[in-house]
Amino acid sequence: MSNTTKPRINPLSRRPRQQRLVLAVRGGAGTGKSHFLRSMSDAGLGRLCIFDVERKTRLLKGVGAQFDGLEVERPDELPEFIDWALSGEGREQNYGCFGLDSWAAYFGAKHSETISAVRERTGDPLSQPTAEELAADQMVLQGVLRRLCMESGKSVVIVDQIAAKGKEAKEDNEVGRVLPMTASGLEYFVDVMVEVSMQEREGEIVRVFQVVKSNSPAFEVGFELTGNVTFKHFLEHMLKETGGDFEREAAKMQTAPETLEEKPSPLTLVAPQMTVQELVMKAERLGFKQADVVTGARVYHNQPNIYRLAPEQVADLDRRMTARAERMKMAQQTEAGDSSSSRSSAETQRTQAARNVKRA
Hints:
about 350 residues; Rossmann fold; single chain; 2 domains; two-stranded antiparallel ribbon; 10 helices; alpha/beta
């Protein structure tokens, strides 16, 4: 049975009301990915919450004071941590943005569990999951990305790791291998994917953030930011390219309620149902007997016991009995009218005969 009391969602309440960007940052070890993630706390988006799978936020400046770093000791805890922050008691912290450090650590740990299960099942220490097993595994793991990137409605940075340059292309050509960037589905859940690296530019070693995948017209593939880049720089570039002020537009946008208010249905009068006892009493008032009610129940509804009649059957017998009483009344009135006419005619004849006698 469907729950008719469930509130109806108002689609207008789901219009975007705040400036946000979902960004994936990939790079090798030591390129500054975690420090870039920490810079979200300086972007004016509210308090930052980092889900720390690698347990390194303890090394970042401002942890516990300027932002929260939640250490995920076991991979299975990550979905629980995200649920806590988005729909559990963690909502009281009023987090304004989120980070995950790192997706590679979580995905790699869960994928290792899948490989171990396959090798234990087959008894082959070199066995690999089939394509179907990988697809099923990835669908489950991508639920974390979907929850964090899409359902949170906040700006999100997801850190991903590149193990070795050139390894992706090699694995891309080998059927059945897990590709860290594409097979995990990360690029499908973010607005922009950036690769960070240390490069020599004009005789100096600088940090380079290059867009490698983009769903935003503000960030073309190949776009670069260099130097001490923060998350705020990306937000400012997006604002410049779009030519709008998200916060001012959000303030002007009419706030719509989260749910639609149900309009009360017009009241309708429902006639009370007649009981068997009331039917018998009415029958007696109309000149019938209880035996007539029993006979009607047997003839019209094949029910010899009138106390087992359904409410609609009682109502049907009531209609039939009332109609019959009306017919009987009309017949009596007609008969009475005919008798009165006969008496009037006889009286007229007697009067005419008396007049004739007097004339004679």
